[in-house]
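Morning - 1-O-phosphono-alpha-D-glucopyranose inputs below, output right after.
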Amino acid sequence: MIRTVSTKPYSDQKPGTSGLRKKVPVFQQPNYVENFVQSIFDSLEGYQGKTLVLGGDGRYYNREAIQIIIRMAAANGFGKLMVGQGGILSTPATSNMIRKYKAFGGIILSASHNAGGPHEDFGIKYNSENGGPAPEKITDRIFEISKKISQYKIADVGPVDLDKLGTTKAGDMTVEVFDPVKDYAELMESLFDFEAISAMIKGGFRIQFDAMHAVTGPYAKEILERRLGAPDGTARNYHPLEDFGGHHPDPNLVHAKALYDDVMSPSGPDFGAASDGDGDRNMVVGKGIFITPSDSLAIIAANATLAKGYKKGIAGVARSMPTSGAADRVAEKLGVGFYETPTGWKFFGNLLDAGKVTLCGEESFGTGSNHVREKDGLWAVLFWLNIIAARGESARQIVEKHWAEYGRNYYSRHDYEEVETDRANALVAELRGKLASLPGTSVRGMKVAAADDFAYHDPVDGSVSEHQGIRVMFEGGSRVVFRLSGTGTSGATLRVYVERYEPDKARHDLDTQEALADLIAAADDIAGIKSHTGRDKPSVIT
Ligand code: G1P
Ligand code: ZN
């Protein structure tokens, strides 16, 4: 039985950098999920009888939302719905399933690295048939529809047993509950040299992977322990929990500090890694060295041919604008394409689909390639293990040699979280107002070479995305970038990205914050961060 239910629109269902993210109680309002899901379906054409992939990172409200979406997909005419067992499916694995099984699209339930629980965050994101996040023209349409929606369709069918593998029916629609790990693990095995990595592990190389009680636990258990033979316990915090054990499943130096400390201790493992809520982010740490995501992209690009899936070489590299320029110099040396895109993975999709780039990365712990259309946490970890195994050198040696060859980009991001929205907007407005007058002036003894509000011209579809972050570039390759987050759920988050290029090998062992001290001070001089936000220091430094 299909019912058409009358509903009233909500005004706040605008998808952000990665879908719609709100606190759980917002999603629990009457018809809130239903309205948004119907708006997604109404923004699409031609899905009748086609397949929809569905899954989430296991956070609070995942299972409830899945049941609603199953009933709505059935009522709206999808032919088949494929859902990960237990409602679990990482973001990169969702992307793979959509591509591999030629689905029409997929819905991912996650708020990524944000905390989970009854009063924390939840999110819904739609991915298109290429496996990547819906492009802006679709997310804009979803928002427009959500503001006018008056009814949605839902089937009166009982809940699907999400824990039992196999196929059932929800009305006329087939529902397949599948193993969320198997296809993904096979994909990884096709890209990397598992024999070389296992031999290295057998030879005593010790890895510690922190799944942060989020979605990658089952993936890491299967791949690192079962397939690569790492000892039991290599994957820690591997049970996905609805509240991630009360922590932020955010793999960075703040939230994965315990892992970092373990790797740094003399008796600790040789290599540590962590992933986030939905499995698309990664943090990699070698003994004695934290590898910044920007450097990670550059080093993977420089060593890509060591992995079997990339041995023919890469077509090009793309990075988000705030990501450091380390990868640019690798692309230049390799003589391959290089692209600078706005923040958010969706901007990489066209470049990947058009074959212009093979590797992509963001400073926010996101790295990926054309194997899927999302960033991929475990993929990055396996790439590093493959490079280490192939080169027979430690992560630290590999990084230091890379700097010696290409120069080092000191890099840090300072976040001011939960700033009052008006104050954050005022800061940005003032900054925009003075952009034109900055070039040629000196700040803390550094000369401003250029300043702009980044606009991206997509070379594939010609679309233009404006106001993507304010860049102030200094002579010599240093810069500061300011932008407001598009993923926060309360107030505004100001992100300040600071970067200094240092070609001289003799100055490659400075403390990052000290190396950037002048630029950090300059950022405040330019934007009046302290006076606008009322904060005397950032909430998070990564
Ligand atoms: C943040 C990151 C961005 C990433 C996004 C989704 O977005 O900065 O690189 O793509 O999360 O994981 P922001 O909050 O800055 O808009
Ligand atoms: Zn994520």
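Note: The longest strand covers residues 408-419.

O.
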